[in-house]
């Protein structure tokens, strides 16, 4: 864009020369500000001035887009839907409402090995965690271990506030609807005899550090967790009370990371949540070598009723997070469009200039 | 207790606090002295001290004391009262409703307390503003209340110092010179022996001349000093009212005698005592009941057009909001219905466990959506607009180019909220006198007794002044400012700030203009600059005057001195006497500032009672012959002896005594002559013999001229007095009942002033009744508008020679009057009437009755004046020039180029008005002028039809374009709308009577249609009411934006009716300014005010409002799209804090800065190319299309800004608010970038504001996200921002989303800018390409700019193609129609319908023209009238004019004949030819049209890049 600072204005904008010193006239000060003569950049939007912008945008965006696209493509990701709506699915049996504690196993093959840390997600679709009343239905003070809130949860938790005359801990609809399937991953090391090597799934380190250490706390006081929660009752849908989420003291009660992750309500109805970490063992071996895997599922979580889907996702990550083909494509597209528009403007500018040149001659 | 009432008010209402509320018309107030003890019974409290008395008399409290309390609130009442007032705003109620809705748990969207925040914020801002204003009011009240003044104390029996606020009605107040009057006071005593007192009312009405007030009759005669203790009278007067010019009442003395009171007896609060050492009076109205305060209305509130349009769009937003909410509600209902069955895990039942029915859920969702989407209704829009307008007002006030050095005043905005209306004006209605002209009256020429005195030397002198003026301006301004500072500073220190701020800022403007010039010579005077004072007399007339004077000096001791004079000389003499005394000029001497020349003269008060009259006049009737000799005898004796018994007696005796004595002496001496004799005796006393006298005269002849200053109420009066002085007929002093005139030979003549019938706009004349000292006759001198006076003349029979002579004189005078009018002079007729004693007695009786009547006194006085002013004898007429103000023609040309239609509405004569119109280029000599003079309704209708027909046919004959067509966004300026070059539209001149007909319901449409076609319209002889009717008509029927500008009281109604009222803070007082929205010192400032500031304000505000709508819609769009992904549950992904404070804090500053500072086109470019103003008139910036395009763009942008993050985060583990925060950030960045595209000038403030906005958002977010781990449910954004800042994805989305959202806008803007640039854009490019040309400050004559040299800088540049030839002055438009069209009755050829009673006038007029044309050196005064015939006779070469004869059906030839039968038709023809020749020259060197310039420029500009 064309820019010119009006040097003249700056000169003019000097302080006024008041001859009389304390002269009292109503003459306004002759300052650049008061006289609205501040030096200014005055861009004028025409094809000629704007087209560099378009080219610059194009030139910047396309490389970025390519970079993102490549990065995103390097990310290995596999997604297994285990909702079991298809009759052929091994989990189809679990859909029937009268089956309790249903187990099913899905086998899948990794075509390529997964290097580096691998993240294991569970994904839900058509699950409206962002529903207004759902989002509200929690008590952060209780989750922070506030003893009074523990026994007297916030009204926002209604109708999951009290049960059997005891306060629910953790209260609210979010907690009540916590995802409770258990996923286990086995590598088929020997296909002939189906030797299964369990993959170590790390439970900790999946939640935000601040959530685990600041936002979520177990109630204070001495004694075991069970004692701390003794005056409370479990959420209606839960099979186990909160202090039995895990055996590890550091990952139990409110600071259970699965719980913490669940409590961070997803933005969109299709979402995934980090379930486990599969840490890289060494540089030599891929974290998840290519091959056949079994996914053992303890199928508890009913999503079929509202047309939801459940998935298990394994993914490696890059500097920009998980696999995301969109952003790369978007950058490339916008960059190209911008470049194209730039060309259009260039043509217009060129053509227009030609015509005016000839016109000039005639004058 | 009853008697204890020092002051009682009959209809008193005990609970009255605010005086204005009362409505007891016709009732009166009674005021008694506070000092009087009870009338009958002794009251124990009577003797108590004043303070105690105040305590005890509880029931008196209802009378307002003098405490000024303009504050609205007290400490306690502030909150409730202020809130109550704020809730009168619908928007506030709405927002509070929304906030309260949020407290309902089922529908709440935010934390309830938080939702209140924006409303509270806005309420608080307003409240703080109100509080501050109220506090400053309180402070100034306090200051005023604690001023001191002397009040008579009953206990101490003397005047003691008290605060103003302690003054009560009925108190006696003592005031000294230069003190400000604390309350409305009835003048009871004055140190002036005549019982006079002068006050300056500048604080009240801005007039700086002194006004005379007189002591109540009955008190002026008091011998000893006025003693309040003896005051036992009761005063009955009107209820407090706001009429400054009226006061009625009577005083009832203890003996039952009644005397009338009128405004001459009342000293108004806020005025200053001048010229009088001390006065005393009784307080009549105090505090808020004083007229000054009752007159003081608050600032005006108007709603601008843009705001009205905006409100309409706000309604659209409301509709949109309702639609979105409804959509959402339905969606939610369906969603609930769908998922409830299925026992979805995320479905939250009601608190009692039951599930919500879809319908209920939908209703809840609807309400919640309204809360969530409330942002769509811009809560901060109104506040922002107020702020922006305030800043705009500030900048307008600060503009140095609108500062008038002469008057030391800058432009004032009195209405704060219609700045942008200035940019949309389509019609300007202007007053003429004082607005277009200086209202500085300069005597130019006169005619006496039918003989014209052209005063050529005087004209040359004036021409010289004009030249010198411009050159000396610089020097004078510097010298002047230094020297005037002293005096003005001291005045200002006296000034006390009343509530009326405007008065304060204006008070000295009128005098300062003069002060500057006058300070060169001596101390300042009220009106008259040297130019007006130094009149070069016409030698012929001077000769006659001195002859007359000499003759009279010799003949003065004869019986009938005047009778021996030839009638002509006698007329000359009377003429000058009339000029000198028929006025209300106050003579002051500059040695003692504002001290009148003190010549102690003993005279009785004017004739006030019948007995008085009888006493004074009856004896003279009995012995009239004798008395004359007696009179002369005494005259002679006084001449000789130097002092007479009488005069010596009277010098040290009091008036009453003198009267008694005279009464006794009446039978022996000549009592009827004593006044003149006494006067002369006084005047002559020191001189003694003739030789001595002559010497004294010579001394005096030089001295008084220098010393005397005249302060007149109107500049005309002063001009006439100065004119008379130039002829050695000097007004020496004036007291209430006598006037002294100094003549070189005759010496000092003292006229007994019997009555002064002041000027009023209905009578249009003023008269004085005097007794002539030489002839002892009672004479009436009348001075007035010629139209009135000519009708009042004594009908003269054509039989005798005298009568014929008279008739001839009259017709000649009329002829000269017309001539003067053609020259643009203001004309006044001077006439005289000699009253016989009987006539006078007869009239006096009625007059005294009228004067003393309380009810409809004005009406009776009016009737009385009419009775007096008949059968006049014409003496002569004067022509006074009212010079055009600086730069008026240029300004008018510029304004017209800017597409403004200018109408001049004036009360002046048609000829004068037309002439001024030519002078200020309102009319062009080349263009047609349609003159509408109709004598009846039918005639007017017929004329209108004809004119319409003519205009239409002309329009169709030339190109089909319409002047009203839109300016298309084409490559070039649309010639149809920019200049009338292709088909000049005629101008319309209409007189008052025709206007009255044309404004009738049946004709107004036609009139308006005709006027619309006309280039300019001139309404002459229009009344104030007509002025306002015209404005109203245009405003309502044409739906046009109107601006009225005027300076006088007669423009007030028009100023009030117009959309924008502009007052000129000139010399006719403050009334126009008080009624106006903007006050400018000069007409020429209108150009910059409209073309620069108006345009800027409009464009800024329009863009800001559009941006506001865009911003809110875009923001709400984000939330709305989200509803599709959250089951329409009215959930928001944007944190409630961001949602609520986004508009208020994060995104508000940049738009404010842009709204205040953005300049789409630099000022100088706007001034050079006034056409650019049309964008505002056509509402190009903010029209419905722009609004909806904007909304569509907002929708698009919100889609982009929503879906890019959506897709980027699709199926990820992001939570609601971690995803919402980038969306917010994206929105903010998009807003800023969008604003960046819209901003035309980037100053450091813009950069700062944008940077600050971004910084503020991120820092607030960071702090907010760190502050509390468990607060702010439900979002609980702990550490969100921090996490995001570590996420590359965040930056990537924040980069791509705003860019892709704005790409289309930028592209289309660039495309439009290249392919279809608007005029504004071309203007900007032009300004940018040649910065040196357009950024150099405009040289105005008054500005002391650094001597930049734009010319040389400019000429030194490389060639710049055609645009270089941009004309410097495009004021002269080409208009190829040379002939003028007159539709006067004669020309129109409709004699049947019209009265043809004009011949005499027109005859003489034409005659005048004929004589003028050959002799006149200025052919430009082209004579405009009645020439339809000439257009036939002469070939109209280039004009596409319709053949006029076809339009004016054949009878017009009769009028042609009529004209050509006059001998001067040929003269007319030659003038026409001349003007056409000059016109053709005009055409040849007419500059290239602006559109061509810009057109070519536009090509160059594209070259450039």
UniProtKB/TrEMBL annotation, chain A:
Q: What is the membrane topology here?
A: Multi-pass membrane protein
Q: Which InterPro entries match?
A: CDC50/LEM3_fam (IPR005045)
Where is it found, in Gene Ontology cellular component terms? apical plasma membrane; early endosome membrane; endoplasmic reticulum; Golgi apparatus; late endosome membrane; phospholipid-translocating ATPase complex; transport vesicle membrane
| Stretches that traverse the bilayer | 44-70, 326-348
Keywords carried by this UniProt record: Cell membrane, Cytoplasmic vesicle, Disulfide bond, Glycoprotein, Golgi apparatus, Lipid transport, Membrane, Transmembrane, Transmembrane helix, Transport
Give GO terms for biological process. positive regulation of neuron projection development; positive regulation of phospholipid translocation; positive regulation of protein exit from endoplasmic reticulum; protein localization to endosome; xenobiotic transmembrane transport
Where does the record place Low complexity bias?
A: 13-23
Tell me its family.
Answer: Belongs to the CDC50/LEM3 family.
Protein name per Swiss-Prot or TrEMBL: Cell cycle control protein
Q: Organism classification, top ranks?
A: Eukaryota, Metazoa, Chordata, Craniata, Vertebrata
Gene (name only): Tmem30a
TrEMBL record, chain B:
Assigned protein family? Belongs to the cation transport ATPase (P-type) (TC 3.A.3) family. Type IV subfamily.
What range(s) does the P-type ATPase N-terminal domain occupy?
64-113
Give the catalysed reaction(s), semicolon-separated.
a 1,2-diacyl-sn-glycero-3-phosphocholine(out) + ATP + H2O = a 1,2-diacyl-sn-glycero-3-phosphocholine(in) + ADP + phosphate + H(+); ATP + H2O + phospholipidSide 1 = ADP + phosphate + phospholipidSide 2; a beta-D-glucosyl-(1<->1')-N-acylsphing-4-enine(out) + ATP + H2O = a beta-D-glucosyl-(1<->1')-N-acylsphing-4-enine(in) + ADP + phosphate + H(+)
Q: Which organism is it from?
A: Nannospalax galili (Northern Israeli blind subterranean mole rat)
Molecular function terms in GO for this entry? Answer: ATP binding; ATP hydrolysis activity; glycosylceramide flippase activity; magnesium ion binding; phosphatidylcholine flippase activity
* PANTHER family noted in UniProt: PHOSPHOLIPID-TRANSPORTING ATPASE VA, PROBABLE PHOSPHOLIPID-TRANSPORTING ATPASE
- Ranges annotated as biased composition (Low complexity): 975-984
Q: Where is the P-type ATPase C-terminal domain?
A: 1073-1318
Q: Where is the composition biased (Polar residues)?
A: 621-635, 669-679, 954-966, 1333-1345, 1372-1382, 1495-1505
- Per its Swiss-Prot or TrEMBL entry, what cofactor is needed? Mg(2+)
The protein here is known as Phospholipid-transporting ATPase
Which Pfam family name is an example for this entry? PhoLip_ATPase_N
């Amino acid at each position: 864009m064309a820019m010119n600072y009006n040097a003249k204005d700056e000169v003019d904008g000097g302080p006024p020369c008041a001859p009389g010193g304390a002269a009292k006239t109503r003459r306004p000060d002759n300052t650049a500000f008061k006289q609205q003569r501040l030096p200014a950049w005055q861009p004028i939007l025409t094809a000629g001035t704007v087209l560099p912008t378009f080219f610059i945008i194009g030139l910047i965006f396309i490389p970025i887009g390519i970079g993102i696209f490549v990065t995103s493509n390097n990310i290995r990701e596999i997604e297994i839907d285990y909702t079991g709506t298809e009759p052929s699915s091994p989990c189809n049996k679990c859909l029937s409402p009268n089956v309790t504690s249903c187990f099913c196993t899905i086998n899948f093959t990794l075509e390529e090995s997964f290097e580096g840390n691998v993240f294991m997600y569970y994904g839900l679709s058509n699950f409206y965690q962002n529903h207004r009343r759902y989002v509200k239905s929690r008590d952060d003070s209780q989750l922070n271990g506030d003893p009074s809130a523990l026994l007297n949860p916030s009204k926002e938790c209604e109708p999951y506030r009290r049960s059997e005359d005891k306060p629910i801990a953790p209260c609210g609809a979010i907690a009540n609807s916590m995802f409770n399937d258990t996923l286990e991953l086995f590598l088929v090391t020997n296909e002939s005899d189906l030797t299964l090597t369990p993959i170590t799934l790390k439970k900790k380190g999946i939640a935000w550090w601040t959530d685990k250490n600041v936002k979520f706390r177990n109630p204070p006081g001495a004694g075991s967790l069970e004692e701390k929660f003794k005056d409370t009752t479990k959420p209606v849908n839960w099979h186990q009370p909160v202090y039995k989420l895990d055996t590890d003291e550091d990952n139990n009660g409110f600071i259970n990371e699965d719980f913490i992750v669940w409590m961070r309500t997803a933005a969109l109805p299709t979402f995934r949540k980090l379930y486990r970490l599969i840490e890289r063992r060494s540089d030599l071996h891929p974290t998840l070598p290519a091959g056949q895997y079994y996914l053992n599922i303890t199928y508890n979580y009913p999503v079929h009723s509202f047309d939801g889907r459940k998935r298990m996702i394994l993914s490696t990550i890059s500097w920009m997070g998980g696999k995301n083909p969109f952003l790369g494509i978007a950058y490339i597209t916008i960059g190209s469009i911008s470049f194209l528009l730039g060309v259009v403007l260039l043509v217009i500018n060129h053509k227009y200039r030609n015509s005016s040149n000839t016109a000039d001659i005639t004058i | 207790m009853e008697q204890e009432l020092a002051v009682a008010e009959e209809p008193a209402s005990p609970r009255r606090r605010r005086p204005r509320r009362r409505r007891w018309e016709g009732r009166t107030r009674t005021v008694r002295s506070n000092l009087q003890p009870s009338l009958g019974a002794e009251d124990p409290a009577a003797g108590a001290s004043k303070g105690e008395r105040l305590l005890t008399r509880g029931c008196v409290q209802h009378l307002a004391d003098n405490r000024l309390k303009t504050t609205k609130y007290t400490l306690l009442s502030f909150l409730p009262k202020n809130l109550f007032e704020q809730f009168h705003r619908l928007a506030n109620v709405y927002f509070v409703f929304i906030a309260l809705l949020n407290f309902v748990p089922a529908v709440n969207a935010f934390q309830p307390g938080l939702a209140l925040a924006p409303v509270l914020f806005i309420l608080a801002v307003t409240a703080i503003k109100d509080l501050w204003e109220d506090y400053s009011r309180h402070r100034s009240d306090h200051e005023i209340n604690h001023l001191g003044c002397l009040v008579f104390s009953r206990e101490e029996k003397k005047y003691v110092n008290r605060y103003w606020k302690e003054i009560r009605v009925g108190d006696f107040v003592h005031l000294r010179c230069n003190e400000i009057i604390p309350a409305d006071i009835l003048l009871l005593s004055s140190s002036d022996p005549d019982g006079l007192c002068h006050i300056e009312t500048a604080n009240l009405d801005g007039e700086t001349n002194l006004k005379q007030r007189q002591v109540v009759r009955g008190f002026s005669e008091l011998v000893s000093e006025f003693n309040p203790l003896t005051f036992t009278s009761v005063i009955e007067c009107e209820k407090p009212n706001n009429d400054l010019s009226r006061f009625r009442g009577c005083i009832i003395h203890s003996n039952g005698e009644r005397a009338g009171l009128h405004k001459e007896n009342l000293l108004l609060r806020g005025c200053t005592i001048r010229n009088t050492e001390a006065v005393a009076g009784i307080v009549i109205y105090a505090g808020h009941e004083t007229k000054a305060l009752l007159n003081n209305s608050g600032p005006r509130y108007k709603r601008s057009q843009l705001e009205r349009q905006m409100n309409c769009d706000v309604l659209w937003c409301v509709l949109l909001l309702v639609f979105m909410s409804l959509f959402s509600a339905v969606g939610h209902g369906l969603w609930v219905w769908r998922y409830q069955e299925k026992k979805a895990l995320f479905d939250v039942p009601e608190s009692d466990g039951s599930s919500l029915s879809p319908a209920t859920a939908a209703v809840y969702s609807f309400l919640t959506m309204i809360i969530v989407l409330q942002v769509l209704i811009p809560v901060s829009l109104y506040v922002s607009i107020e702020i922006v307008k305030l800043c705009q007002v500030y900048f307008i006030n600060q503009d140095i180019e609108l500062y008038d050095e002469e008057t030391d005043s800058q432009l004032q905005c009195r209405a704060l909220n219609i700045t942008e209306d200035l940019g949309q004006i389509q019609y300007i209605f202007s007053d003429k006198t004082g607005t277009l002209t200086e209202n500085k009256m300069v005597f130019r020429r006169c005619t006496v007794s039918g003989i014209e005195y052209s005063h050529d030397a005087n004209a040359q002198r004036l021409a010289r002044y004009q030249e010198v003026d411009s050159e000396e301006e610089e020097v004078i301004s510097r010298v002047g400012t230094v020297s005037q500072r002293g005096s003005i500073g001291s005045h200002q220190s006296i000034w006390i700030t009343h509530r009326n701020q405007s008065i304060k800022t204006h008070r000295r403007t009128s005098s300062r203009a003069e002060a500057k010039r006058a300070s060169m010579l001596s101390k300042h005077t009220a009106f008259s600059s040297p130019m007006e004072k130094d009149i070069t007399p016409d030698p012929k007339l001077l000769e006659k005057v001195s002859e007359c004077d000499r003759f009279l000096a010799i003949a003065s001791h004869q019986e009938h001195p005047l009778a021996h004079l030839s009638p002509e000389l006698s007329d000359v003499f009377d003429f000058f006497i009339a000029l000198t005394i028929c006025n209300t000029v106050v003579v002051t001497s500059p040695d003692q500032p504002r001290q009148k020349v003190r010549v102690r003269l003993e005279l009785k008060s004017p004739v006030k009672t019948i007995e008085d009259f009888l006493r004074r006049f009856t004896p003279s009737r009995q012995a009239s012959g004798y008395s004359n000799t007696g009179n002369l005898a005494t005259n002679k004796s006084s001449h000789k002896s130097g002092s007479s018994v009488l005069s010596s007696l009277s010098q040290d005796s009091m008036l009453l005594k003198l009267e008694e004595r005279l009464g006794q002496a009446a039978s022996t001496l000549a009592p009827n002559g004593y006044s003149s004799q006494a006067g002369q005796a006084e005047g002559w006393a020191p001189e003694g013999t003739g030789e001595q006298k002559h010497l004294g005269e010579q001394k005096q002849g030089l001295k008084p001229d220098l010393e005397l200053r005249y302060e007149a109420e109107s500049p005309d009066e002063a001009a006439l007095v100065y004119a008379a002085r130039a002829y050695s007929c000097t007004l020496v002093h004036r007291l209430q009942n006598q006037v002294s005139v100094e003549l070189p030979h005759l010496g000092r003549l003292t006229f007994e002033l019997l009555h002064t019938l002041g000027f009023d706009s209905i009578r249009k004349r003023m008269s004085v009744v005097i007794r002539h000292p030489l002839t002892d006759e009672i004479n009436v001198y009348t001075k007035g508008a010629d139209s009135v006076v000519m009708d009042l003349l004594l009908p003269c029979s054509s039989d005798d020679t005298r009568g014929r002579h008279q008739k001839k004189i009259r017709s000649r005078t009329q002829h000269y009057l017309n001539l003067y009018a053609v020259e643009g002079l203001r004309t006044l007729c001077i006439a005289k009437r000699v009253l016989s004693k009987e006539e006078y007695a007869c009239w006096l009786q009625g007059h005294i009755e009228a004067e003393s009547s309380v009810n409809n006194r004005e009406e009776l006085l009016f009737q009385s004046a009419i009775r007096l002013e008949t059968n006049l004898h014409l003496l002569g007429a004067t022509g006074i020039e009212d010079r055009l103000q600086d730069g008026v023609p240029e300004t008018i040309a510029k304004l017209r180029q800017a597409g403004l239609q200018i109408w001049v509405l004036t009360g002046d004569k048609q000829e004068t008005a037309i002439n001024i119109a030519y002078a200020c280029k309102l009319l062009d000599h080349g263009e047609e002028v349609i003159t509408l003079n109709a004598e009846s309704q039918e005639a007017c209708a017929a004329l209108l039809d004809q004119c319409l027909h003519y205009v239409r046919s002309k329009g169709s004959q030339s190109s089909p374009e319409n002047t009203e067509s839109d300016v298309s966004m084409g490559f070039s300026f649309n010639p149809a709308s920019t200049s009338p070059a292709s088909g000049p539209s005629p101008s319309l001149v209409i007189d008052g009577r025709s206007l009255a007909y044309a404004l009738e319901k049946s004709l107004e449409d036609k009139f308006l249609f005709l006027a619309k076609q006309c280039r300019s319209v001139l309404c002459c002889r229009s009344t104030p009411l007509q002025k306002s009717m015209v404005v109203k008509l245009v405003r309502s029927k044409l739906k046009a934006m109107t601006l009225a500008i005027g300076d006088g009281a007669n423009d007030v109604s028009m100023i009030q009716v117009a959309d924008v009222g502009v007052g000129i803070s000139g010399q006719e007082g403050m009334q126009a300014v008080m009624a106006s929205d903007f006050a400018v010192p000069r007409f020429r400032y209108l150009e910059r005010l409209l073309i620069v500031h108006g345009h800027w304000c409009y464009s800024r505000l329009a863009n800001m409002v559009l941006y506001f709508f865009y911003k809110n819609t875009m923001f709400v769009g984000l939330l709305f799209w989200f509803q599709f992904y959250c089951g329409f549950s009215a959930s928001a992904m944007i944190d409630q804090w961001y949602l609520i404070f986004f508009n208020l804090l994060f995104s508000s500053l940049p738009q404010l800065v842009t709204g205040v500072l953005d300049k789409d086109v630099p000022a100088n470019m706007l001034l050079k190319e006034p056409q650019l103003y049309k964008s505002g008139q056509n509402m190009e910036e903010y029209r419905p299309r722009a609004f909806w395009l904007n909304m569509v763009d907002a929708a698009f942008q919100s889609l982009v800004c929503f879906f890019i993050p959506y897709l980027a985060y699709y199926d990820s583990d992001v939570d609601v608010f971690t995803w919402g925060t980038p969306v917010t950030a994206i929105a903010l960045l998009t807003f800023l970038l969008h604003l960046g595209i819209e901003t035309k000038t980037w100053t450091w403030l813009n950069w700062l504001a944008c940077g600050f906005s971004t910084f503020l958002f991120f820092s607030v977010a960071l702090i907010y996200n760190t502050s509390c781990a468990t607060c702010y449910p439900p979002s609980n954004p702990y550490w969100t921002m921090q996490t995001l800042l570590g996420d590359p994805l965040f930056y990537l989305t924040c980069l791509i989303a705003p860019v892709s959202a704005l790409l289309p806008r930028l592209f289309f803007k660039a495309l439009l800018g290249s392919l279809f640039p608007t005029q504004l854009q071309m203007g900007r490019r032009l300004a940018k390409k040649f910065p040196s040309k357009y950024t150099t400050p405009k040289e105005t004559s008054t500005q002391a700019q650094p001597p930049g040299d734009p010319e040389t800088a400019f000429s030194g540049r490389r060639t710049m193609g055609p645009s270089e030839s941009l004309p410097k002055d495009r004021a002269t438009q080409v208009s190829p129609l040379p002939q003028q069209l007159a539709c006067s009755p004669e020309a129109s050829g409709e004699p049947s319908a019209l009265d043809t009673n004009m011949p005499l006038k027109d005859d003489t007029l034409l005659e005048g023209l004929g004589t003028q044309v050959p002799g006149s050196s200025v052919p430009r005064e082209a004579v405009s009238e009645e020439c339809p015939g000439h257009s036939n006779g002469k070939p109209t070469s280039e004009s596409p004019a319709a053949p006029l004869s076809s339009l004016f059906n054949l009878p017009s030839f009769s009028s042609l004949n009529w004209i050509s039968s006059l001998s001067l038709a040929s003269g007319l023809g030659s003038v026409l030819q001349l003007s056409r020749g000059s016109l053709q020259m005009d055409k040849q060197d007419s500059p290239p049209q602006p559109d061509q310039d810009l057109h070519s420029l536009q090509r160059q500009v594209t070259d450039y890049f």
